[in-house]
Description:
Blueprint: E1 11-16, H1 21-36, E2 45-50, H2 56-70, H3 74-85, E3 88-92, H4 101-107, E4 114-119, H5 126-135, E5 144-148, H6 155-166, E6 174-177, H7 184-194, E7 208-216, H8 225-250, H9 259-272, E8 281-286, H10 295-299, E9 309-314, E10 326-331, E11 338-345, E12 363-369, E13 373-381, E14 390-398, H11 399-402, H12 413-423, H13 432-452, E15 457-459, H14 467-474
Helix pairs in contact: 1-2, 1-12, 2-3, 6-13, 8-9, 8-13, 9-13
Amino acid sequence: MVSRVIPVQPFDLVIFGGTGDLARRKILPALFRRFCAGQMAEDARVIGAARSEMDGAGYRAFARDAIAEFDGDIAMMNAHLGRFLEQVDYVTVDATGDDGWPELAQRLTDPERIRAFYFSVGPTLFGPLATRVHEHGLASPGCRIVVEKPFGRDLASARALNAVLAEHFNETQIYRIDHYLGKETVQNLMAIRFANTLFEPLWNSQYVDHIQITVAESGGVGTRGGYYDKSGAMRDMMQNHIMQLLCLTAMEPPAKYDPDSVRDEKLKVIRALDPVAPDDVVRGQYESTDTLPGYRNEVENRDTTTESFVALKARIGNWRWAGTPFYLRTGKRLRARASEIAVVFKDAPHSIFGADAGRHRNILTIRLQPNEGIEMGVTIKEPGPGGMRLVDVPLDMTFSEALGPEAEDIPDAYERLIMDVIRGDQTLFMRGDEVEAAWGWTDPIIEAWQTAGTPPALYSTGSSGPDDALALIHRDGRRWREIKP
């Protein structure tokens, strides 16, 4: 199996916040890997822009260090890094003032080239940057902007943010990036559903008992404590990442695979979500251990009621999913780092094998991280004499095993998404009305917590979350899948 690399046209990419953590860890290494793969044209340009006083040589040294730290492929660096850095430049720019903007304009002289502006900054700077890009004549007719989450912290702020961006750019120019949608396995979810007649006829409440979506992290909030304590798991993960996984799992087949058709179907899912009852949601905070600080210690706020864990039962009020619950959970300091979507099919309507054969179900598992792959649980006869004894065995397609060395060459999420921006493909990016609809469903849950004033339940580091989360699914006669790497 050989992956095809389709080169993109020459482009100018300006990274506002070019000296920040995201640029260092993700954006610059991703661009370098696409350059090594031959996808970037030799005359493409990457321009860092930030308040830091630095010249082009200084930024090239910054980029070299970032790539060495977060890419680490010595052979590629020796072969390609010098040529890549020739395409990198830097301008000192004040996002809230006018300093540096004339110098940036001098770098962008060809309005016919693809031009993209990556807003790798806090949301408070989106408006000032959008305004200055226009005031200084940098917004070419076909330019586009990339904005990172968080897209607001509630419905009102999301609407205000969308309105600010809409003052200067139309919706076709705005790329709201969620790196989960760039994962290979997430996109394979659509291929599994819509390219295989085996699954789509069964992908409904008649055959599916329930669906579990888990995004578990083994680490704590770490250095993100200041930000995280103002958002929590609900805003940081559930409202965006997990919501996107839910939409792709539950949506109807789009008429065709294009940006608006796919996003229209995702929006329908969000609008069909029933309100979540207070008894159907659990939140928690991880406790300290002898060697690790608890959540309150890490965020340096002993009175905080912000959650580091959320589990809830969601229902979609449409014909396809009536009666089929979706169990969603995410949290930090859990047993392992693991993300998966598990489609649990119903039992056979009648077992011909008797009670001794036990209870068996088919489960389709899409593993997002680590060990990306797809697993199908199939019931077979246990080998050996002694009657008909049934066991469940996995049909496992782990990417690293199925694709061999080529699995290491699969682009990561940021590589794919940045190239999609250059191509002008918005399929894997969120639309403004989609973001607002997600907040419209999330806000009442958060407001109910604030009204009740009940603190999050405590849970042990290395566990599967608070006991209340286990009860949430056990009372329905179901069990959470084990969190394992």
